[in-house]
Specification:
Blueprint (H helix, E strand, L loop, with lengths): L13 H13 L1 H7 L1 E5 L1 H9 L4 E6 L7 H12 L4 E3 L2 H5 L10 E6 L16 E4 L5 H13 L4 E5 L8 H7 L7 E5 L1 H10 L3 E5 L5 E2 L9 E5 L8 H6 L2 E4 L11 H17 L4
Parallel strand pairs: 2-3, 5-6, 5-10, 6-7, 8-10, 8-11, 9-11
Antiparallel strand pairs: 1-4, 2-4
């Protein structure tokens, strides 16, 4: 059993690493201040390594970690100099949030792109958000964006945290392939005007059904918070408003579903050569 310090990497304190991961999982202020976040699980770890995320520490339980690919990439990361703490299954379960403890967790650097460096024509399109009520919905939307080749997310203001552990877990590795931009509304307006981007907002009162709208090569999809929808300030940024037709009793869709429908419509249009 490992002692207070990991024998394979003497400079890494096991208890301190466990405490660090717990704090990154529960304290958004700390995540923002340090620019780090916690990753857990085989799929997330493998995707993070394959996408070139910067890992600053690994937490490994040899008895729990069974996946050969994860063990191989863990050894590669250790050889590359990533500090690694070997822990018992009991110690690992202190920070495990998945129903079944995987035996692999990591601390990673948050990856951000400055808006001036964001390519307006990258990927399928961009998504702009100002607020999200349910982090799991954001994780699902990130998965959809990555699936269709979306460029990433432009987050207006400070409210949305893409490194919330619920988001990271729900994204199932897709987070690492998406660009993340923090911007003000004025900065987004200037960037969109400069690059001739079209901002298309989704709203129940949009005059055009989403499947009859045009989505140029440089498109930003603007999505509102689940209950309130687009704010007046967000609406003012939009060049078009589209709606998603509904005939049942429901008067709205959650963010993950609504955003995914729009993403796949843009994808369908591009594949069919309409835009």
């Amino acid at each position: 059993m490992a002692g207070p310090r990991d024998r394979g990497h003497p400079g890494l304190d096991v208890e301190a690493t466990l405490a660090e991961i717990e704090k990154l999982q529960t304290d958004r202020v700390y995540r923002d201040a340090t620019g780090r976040y916690a990753i857990e699980g085989v799929r997330n770890f493998v995707q993070a390594v394959e996408c070139g995320m910067e890992l600053t520490a690994l937490l490994v339980s040899d008895k729990l970690l069974k996946a050969p690919i994860a063990r191989k990439l863990m050894r590669r990361a250790r050889r590359a100099g990533v500090p690694t703490a070997k822990v018992t299954p009991e110690q690992f379960r202190r920070v495990a949030r998945a129903q079944r403890a995987s035996g692999i967790a990591a601390i990673a650097r948050q990856h951000w792109t400055e808006l001036p460096q964001a390519s307006p024509g990258a990927g399928l399109c961009w998504i702009a958000l100002e607020a999200v009520r349910a982090p799991g919905n954001l994780g699902s939307l990130i998965r959809s964006s990555e699936a269709v080749g979306g460029a990433g997310f432009i987050l207006l203001g400070q409210a949305v945290d893409p490194f919330d552990p619920v988001v990271v877990r729900a994204a199932m590795g897709a987070l690492f392939g998406q660009a993340l931009v923090r911007s003000s509304r004025a900065e987004l307006a200037h960037w969109a005007a400069r690059h001739r981007c079209r901002i298309v907002g989704a709203s129940p009162d949009g005059p055009r059904p989403f499947h009859r709208a045009s989505y140029p090569r440089r498109t930003v999809l603007m999505l509102g918070e689940e209950r309130r929808g687009l704010t007046p300030q967000q609406r003012a940024l939009c060049h078009d408003l589209v709606s998603i037709p509904m005939t049942g009793l429901a008067d709205s869709l959650n963010l993950g579903v609504a955003g995914s429908l729009l993403l796949y419509e843009v994808f369908r249009c591009r594949m069919g050569g309409r835009n």
